[in-house]
Amino acid sequence: MFNEVYLLTGGNLGDRFKLLEQAKSAISEKIGKIKNESSIYETVPWGFKAEQDFLNQVVEVSTKLSPQKVLEFCLEIEDELGRERKSGYYESRTMDIDILFYNDEIVNEPGLIIPHPKLHLRRFTLVPLTEIEPDFVHPVLNKKLTLILEECNDISDVRRL
What we know:
The chain is α+β, with helices and mostly antiparallel strands and 161 residues long. It has one domain: 7,8-Dihydro-6-hydroxymethylpterin-pyrophosphokinase HPPK (Alpha-Beta Plaits), CATH 3.30.70. 29% of the residues lie in helices and 27% in strands. Strands 1, 2, 3, 4, 5 and 8 form a six-stranded antiparallel beta sheet that branches. The chain has a two-stranded antiparallel sheet with strand order 6-7. A hairpin with a 2-residue loop joins β6 and β7 (112-114). The longest helix has 15 residues, at 16-30. It is globular and about 40 Å long. The mean pLDDT is 94.
């Protein structure tokens, strides 16, 4: 049986466009078939200051993998694309891949929380996600993504490229 997984890809270091393409290629190879993808958006860093803005994109992936295996491969892809984790704080990076949704399942275990616990607070996540799946109902908040985006207090600029 196939599962629908929504991933947010993004980074602000290096060749940002090339890294997004490389991430999608690796996701296709390791996690599953990309069924849909949002536009690419340029956004200011969230939670910290940086010289370069982020590029972000949401992809919908059809996979047979468990949520834990999806996470394992996301971390592996980040490492392959040059991600360095230096601190427990938000910082610039070549690639970050977040699991936003896994079907409409709720997972809460050490190191893995799905839906992403900050998804509803971040325009840089909600805008591309709502572009490709506006009527999806958040399984914890029980609201459509369009309504969550309307209610979001984040005023960050999210520019479609």
